[in-house]
Amino acid sequence: IVAVEPVAALELGLEPVVHRFVADLETKDQITREHVVRVAELAMRVGARLGVPAADLHDLGLGALLHDIGKVEIPDEVLNKPGRLTDDEFEIMKAHAAIGRRMIAATPALSAVAPIVGGHHERWDGRGYPDGLAGEDIPLAARIVSAGDAVGAMAQTRQYREGLGVERALSILREHAGSQWDARVVAAVEEELAEYDAPPVAGPLADVGRAVADDVAAGCGCVDALPRERIDG
């Protein structure tokens, strides 16, 4: 099933803690939750296009689904600010990559994808964060998530601006291919979106975390039994 439909296979094999993390993200910010679902589906399709082995597509999708989990520790007034962030606020926002990496590294079932979560804001030219990695020192999976994250964030309407649309977002990726993003990955993203358009929220991962979120909203104590490895932010 992984070879036939990797996104559906990912959804079937998710650990309960993943549902808990995504539910936490949905509670924090619905827009970001929908964003990570889109990015996960796009990243897996791009990974397959680039020849990522079937055995590694699961980790790619998992890392993409969790790439913004560190935002649960970002103050609401920064995460949901409608206008431009100040320099200090931007430094707070940037911390989500390292926070997310620590959260995932501290969760035994997920620790293998911590470098993907931590690396999704690294840049091909080495000017990214949190570690200033460059080129192929950035894991390929993180480079794929980075490009998918960027096109999704730019194309869709967010708290701080109207969406630019897919075509404009892709033009920005092309403009900065080879500096901010891996040019080979950008080309694959463009090919994928030209063929299949942007992933819908109603795809195979649409309901990840939803049962947990519903239980929390209903006051069910059953979610307390789920594994939840967390750190202080």
Account of the protein in words:
- This protein is mainly alpha-helical.
- The protein has helices at residues 6-12, 16-28, 30-49, 54-65, 76-79, 87-105, 114-119, 140-155, 166-175, 183-196, 210-217.
- The longest helix is centred in the first third of the chain and has 20 residues, at 30-49.
Question: Main traits of this protein?
Answer:
disordered C terminus; 233 residues; mainly alpha
Q: Which residues form runs of ≥5 with pLDDT under 50?
A: 220-233
Q: Structural class of the secondary structure composition?
A: mainly alpha
Classify the oligomer: single chain
Distance between the termini: 38 Å
Shape: globular
Order of helices and strands: HHHHHHHHHHH
Strand content: under 5%
Number of helices: 11
Report on the biggest sheet: none
What topology emerges from the helices and strands here?
Elements: H1 6-12, H2 16-28, H3 30-49, H4 54-65, H5 76-79, H6 87-105, H7 114-119, H8 140-155, H9 166-175, H10 183-196, H11 210-217
Helix pairs in contact: 1-4, 2-3, 2-11, 3-4, 3-8, 3-10, 4-8, 8-9, 9-10
Please sum up the structure shown.
With 233 residues, this protein is an all-alpha fold. Helix content is 55%, strand content 0%.
